[in-house]
Design a protein that fits this description.
The chain is an alpha/beta fold. The chain has two domains: about 1-135, 3-Layer(aba) Sandwich (Rossmann fold); about 135-170 and about 190-255 and about 265-284, UDP-galactose 4-epimerase, domain 1 (Alpha-Beta Complex). The chain has helices at about 10-20, 55-60, 80-90, 115-125, 140-145, 145-150, 170-180, 200-210, 220-230, 235-250, 260-265, 270-284, and strands at about 1-5, 30-35, 45-50, 65-70, 95-100, 130-135, 155, 190, 215-220. The strands form two sheets. Strands 3-2-1-4-5-6-8 form a seven-stranded parallel sheet, with helices on both faces. It has a two-stranded parallel ribbon with strand order 7-9. β5, α4 (about 115-125) and β6 (about 130-135) form a beta-alpha-beta unit. α1 (about 10-20) packs across α7, α8 (about 200-210) crosses α12 and α9 (about 220-230) runs antiparallel to α10 (about 235-250).
Length: about 280
């Protein structure tokens, strides 16, 4: 009756394993990772599972009944890598796959959406039962820039007045645990986002409130923001992608008010102020 977690040593995967251990015996959890020796701290069985190695994946998934497929971090290679996992799961006899997709993946203008749409289609064609968690933005995607904004005296972006209904990574991890262990999850597609939305101007104001400093939001044209990110050491291609995601946010791509996430986890999502406070502790 084992539950397998791909990417278990990643930021989301680690949280899922931690929360899952509180719900089921640790002996029923399998961490599927590239380097098992690095997963010792998780306190569960770890198996080698590389998204690019189909034969290895089949062996790693043996005996797994339910699989959490956390989307690969290799943008541009995700669809093929996810397909490898789905094919291996079918060969290994996995009964259900829970997949971390993207908010409104079927209609999203985000550049990330195409690969998620492809994986959702592959899941539906696989014959394996599935649950799709269309995760919205992690609040940490933005609060991770707080240290830089404090050093530079402004929070930069290209999201204009777009409203962002993000949630803490821990909220999405809690949703994954419910989807993995709850009944009646087969065939469900969830649009997961934070209870409340904010603009980057609101975020800057919250940073200012908690630090006692005036940290304004500076909205930049897409190319200028990408250039600024590159100047901070972000690789050129990734800098362009980040700026493009902000432009999509300005068009509403990161907004949702359905509150399906809080309904699924049975509690309100983590407030923006709390995630900002955690980020400020880390920035010290």
């Amino acid at each position: 009756m084992a539950i397998g977690i791909t990417g278990a040593t990643g930021q989301l995967g680690g949280l899922v394993v931690e929360k899952l251990k509180a719900a089921i015996p640790a002996t029923d959890i399998v961490a599927l990772v590239r380097t098992p020796s690095k997963a010792a701290a998780l306190g569960v069985v770890a198996r080698a599972a590389d998204y690019t190695q189909p034969a290895e994946l089949v062996e790693a998934l043996a005996g797994i009944e339910t699989l959490l497929l956390i989307s690969s971090n290799e943008i541009g290679k995700r669809a093929e890598q996810h397909r490898n996992v789905i094919d291996a799961a079918k060969k290994a006899g996995v009964k259900r796959i829970v997949y971390t997709s993207l908010l409104h993946a079927d209609t999203s203008v985000l550049s990330l959406a195409d690969e998620h749409r492809a994986t959702e289609a592959d899941l539906k064609a696989s014959g394996i039962a599935f649950t799709i968690l269309r995760n919205g933005w992690y609040t940490e995607n933005y609060t991770g820039s707080i240290a830089g904004s404090l050093a530079g005296g402004a929070f930069l972006g290209s999201a204009g007045n777009g409203r962002i209904a993000s949630a803490a990574r821990a909220d999405y991890a809690a949703a994954a645990v419910v989807a993995l262990t709850g009944s009646g999850q087969e065939g469900r597609v969830y649009e997961l986002a934070g209870d409340d939305s904010y603009t980057l101007c609101d975020l800057a104001a919250e940073i200012s409130r908690q630090t006692g400093r005036e940290i304004p939001y500076k909205d930049l044209p897409e190319a200028e923001y990408a250039a600024a990110l590159k100047g901070f050491g972000v690789p050129e291609g990734f800098a362009a992608a980040i700026a493009g995601w902000d432009v999509s946010a300005a068009q509403g791509a990161l907004f949702d008010d359905g509150r399906q996430l809080s309904a699924l986890i049975g509690r309100p999502t983590t407030p923006l102020a709390a995630v900002v406070a955690d980020a400020l502790k880390s920035a010290k």
